[in-house]
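Bug #77: duplicate submission created two jobs. Keeping one. Sequence:
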Amino acid sequence: MMKKRQVSLKRDSGSGRASTTSSSVVRNVRYGECQKNHAANIGGYAVDGCREFMASGEEGAGGALMCAACGCHRNFHRREVESEVVCEYSPSNHSQR
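Kept job's structure:
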């Protein structure tokens, strides 16, 4: 199973406000079953049954985009993206008078 994780952090301290709000978006990308039609050249429809992308090599290497199970490029596998937004609010420590 190959997962990628992308995190972006956005901070807004506001203009004159005494609080800090930060939010982050976490995206997990997973590549599911292979959808390559192996019988397209003869007008049919046949998939190989590969259920999940498994990289043939390390990230950044030549085989990272080829599936070890079916030999297809990663683009033939169904892409699933899970996004999660996490917001945090921190009030200031200033006391009001």
